[in-house]
Amino acid sequence: MQKILVIEDEAAIRRVLKKIISEENEMYEVFEAEDGIQGLEMIMNEDYDLVLCDIKMPKMDGVEVLEKAKKIKPEIVMVMISGHGDLDTAVQTMRLGAFDYISKPPDLNRLLNTVRNALDKKNLVVENKRLKKKVSKNYEMVGESQAITHIKDIIEKVAATDARVLITGPNGTGKELVAHWLHEKSARSKAPLVEVNCAAIPSELIESELFGHVKGSFTGANKDRAGKFEAANGGTIFLDEIGDMSLSAQAKVLRALQENKVARVGSDKDIKVNVRIIAATNKDLKNEISKGSFREDLYHRLAVILVKVPALNDRREDIPLLINFFAKKIAEEQGGVQKVFSEKAITLLQQYDWTGNIRELRNVVERLIILGGNEVSEMDVSTFASK
């Protein structure tokens, strides 16, 4: 059932609205409030898929109800009911977040179309939240070791700010997970997180990839193209393996940080950007600075907050949790039943030298699930997880 609340001080109009909406769809459950105070109290205590609210009411008018409801439940969907003299106010409520408004006396088709459209929006909001939660699970940081708990604490403190973060650690440790968590817990989470693997892009193309280019700026530039910084405007850009970036590209990234501007390759026109930068590397950047291959001024700009992700060998106590997490995830992906790992199998896996870190562990768990018995045993580990 979809719950609809009608807040209207005129009992006759309230009854008409309830009758029309209830008869339209048996899945609509309509509730009534006779004034703004009662309506706001009901909104606080119950979740409604849609609220129809009159503008002119005693005790508390509809504009105040809308403003307070949006503060309590920002995603609430409200349609305002306006008299002929309230049209300017009705338009104002749209700016305050109302979905739409309908005039008195309500036109049947207009009313039902508005209700359907408003409920469609509510369904989209619910679906987006579900998908977002699903995406978040894909980037879940698993572990209860002291090192991982420390990283989670840093993320909780830093995510809400725009502070730049430099994530360090060996390959396969999950540096990208830290970047995703920082973004998803930030105020920028509704804007894009744009990832750039600096090591995977040829040095001669990295500037075009980051900052875009104009037509004819180099061979193969057949049209204007926006770069990753423009694509991430309002959100976050994650520069993975930044230690592999060319010095010329580093200079332009530094300018983007200092001035919040970028220029496409082949153009002298500045483009304003508002992005948060998160960078990651498996290299010792201070050592790269001493060798002259990384700019010291860029390092200090990026390393406002430093997060060091430990190697799996340094957090072996998390391996049982990781094995269970991967086993569950693989079962969901393959549509099978989650396999159980015996205690001896887990103990043996904890003793391995995980040079490939979490990425390697995930591959080994998948191999054991495919090739091992109904319960993955110590013998399965010895046979199929050979290093």
Automatic annotation (TrEMBL):
GO terms for molecular function: ATP binding. Pfam families: AAA_lid_14, Response_reg, Sigma54_activat. It comes from the Bacteria. The keyword Nucleotide-binding applies. Residues 141-370 form the Sigma-54 factor interaction domain. One of its GO terms (biological process) is regulation of DNA-templated transcription. SUPFAM superfamilies: CheY-like, P-loop containing nucleoside triphosphate hydrolases. InterPro entries: AAA+_ATPase, AAA_lid_NorR, CheY-like_superfamily, P-loop_NTPase, Sig_transdc_resp-reg_receiver, Sigma_54_int, Sigma_54_int_dom_ATP-bd_2. The modification 4-aspartylphosphate is found at residue 54. Keywords: ATP-binding, Nucleotide-binding, Phosphoprotein. Residues 3-119 form the Response regulatory domain. This is Fis family transcriptional regulator. It comes from Polaribacter pacificus.
